[in-house]
Design brief:
Layout: E1 5-10, H1 17-26, E2 31-36, H2 37-41, E3 52-55, H3 69-88, E4 92-96, H4 98-106, E5 122-125, E6 133-141, E7 155-162, E8 166-169, H5 171-179, E9 183-187, E10 209-213, E11 219-222, H6 248-263
Parallel strand pairs: 1-2, 1-3, 3-4, 4-11
Antiparallel strand pairs: 5-8, 6-7, 6-9, 9-10, 10-11
Helix pairs in contact: 3-4
């Protein structure tokens, strides 16, 4: 059986790496390493030794210029070829919150099937509320998206922690993302209907987008934080529920581990 190795990139203000490591540990990964980006850049750590790469949440470079922008430029310039090979090999990449912003601003999402990196065609910008949103929301997985991360996930209660989470793109790029089934998650209301209304849509994202994948589905970026819902008791209303809620954040990580064991 394939052993599952996870590379979690750290440094420069990334601060959700520990929780993300716990999530993969709970999901059954065999080897989890939290590694400063520079150790990958200088060749001390080789991404080829891993099957899953993670861009965790945080405030890389203090969110200067724009969230994820500086880190994205650094990674694209200094380890772009390593990341490109990793993705083209069919391995899994997930970017959460600041990690999602980084992948989008590098052009990895929505990306290019052959070249991986594409000219940036979307961004994540300031929330319509003009404030930092730190609470729980509800999102819905796209059943037509082929990503292994999404298997068996439908409606998903999850935490958000962001000030620049509004996903925007030109209409032809939004249409390409939608028609290509690259939308991964969308914000929904209490009736599980996709919504543009605040506060259910916490940032005003176009098409209520909370996350997208590349065309193949092996790269996922999402603004909410699944790593903080790996146990039912982390749900803010679990004591009011008739039964313990399923920790769907953990399921997302378990899906990744399962995919590596069975497919890679």
């Amino acid at each position: 059986m394939e052993k599952v190795s996870v590379l979690i990139l750290t440094g420069y203000g990334i601060n959700c790496d520990v929780e993300t490591a716990w999530a993969f540990e709970a999901a059954g990964a065999d080897r989890i390493e939290r590694v400063h980006v520079n150790r990958v850049v200088n060749g001390e750590v080789n991404p080829d030794d891993f099957q899953i790469m993670v861009f965790p949440g945080g405030f890389s470079f203090g969110d200067h210029i724009a969230s994820g922008r500086v880190l994205g430029l650094k990674i694209k310039k200094e380890m772009g070829e390593k990341l490109k090979k990793f993705i083209l090999d069919g391995k899994l990449v997930i970017g959460i919150c600041n990690g999602f912003q980084t992948l989008v601003k590098m052009g990895v999402l929505p990306g290019d099937e052959k070249e991986v990196f594409k000219k940036q065609v979307a961004t994540l910008t300031h929330n319509d509320s003009a404030k930092y949103e730190d609470r729980w929301v509800r999102i819905k997985a796209n059943p037509n998206n082929p990503s292994p991360f999404l298997e068996g996930i439908d409606i998903f209660d999850v935490a958000i922690r962001h000030g620049e989470g509004k996903f925007i793109a030109q209409q032809h790029d939004l249409r390409m993302i939608k028609e290509g089934n690259m939308i991964a998650f969308q914000y929904v209301d209490e009736n599980s209907e996709i919504t543009q209304h605040y506060p259910e849509n916490p940032n005003g994202s176009e098409l209520a987008i909370a996350g997208i994948t590349n065309k193949k589905g092996n790269v996922l970026g999402m603004m909410p934080h699944p790593e903080v819902f790996i146990n039912g008791t982390q749900h803010p209303e679990w004591t009011r529920m008739d039964k313990m809620p399923e920790a769907l954040g953990l399921k997302l990580f378990s899906n990744a581990v399962k995919y590596v064991r069975e497919k890679l």
